[in-house]
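I hope you will forgive my troubling you with a question about protein structure. I should value your view on which stretches of the chain appear to form regular backbone elements. Here, with my thanks, is the record as I have it:
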Amino acid sequence: MKISVIIPTLGKRDSLYPLFESLLRQDLPNNQFEILVIGNLENPNLRKWVQAFQAKMNISLFFTNTLGVNRARNLGIEKSKAGLLVFLDDDCVISDLHFLEKILRLHEENPEAAAIGGPYLAVPQAKYRELAYVQVCRVWLEASRIGKKQTFD
């Protein structure tokens, strides 16, 4: 396992399904990355939606007992199994099939870097934000550098 993709969510099906579908299209083999969906508060519908994708990809669901994106990110860090953490919003769609592969390559070429980030690219008249290039990744962190005990405030 090389990458943990952490997705905090309030459980909106209309935004999660396109994101899940875009992660399915990644050319990085499924055994190289995991997807951690972190729901704010228990949501039986969210559980059902994630289960629909479990046969297709390595996806897990966890719930926080309080609202807040930072608490969700922290739980994602705690549950992650990979050395690189990628945080995505639940309303993103990844258009680049090589997105996760590029993150791995960028990390290998820049081992001294602990984090990268960037803005989203707006897609005119699109319902979802597009992530088109690795430069616009929300943020990735090297887990060994932040440590499992360090968290978002």
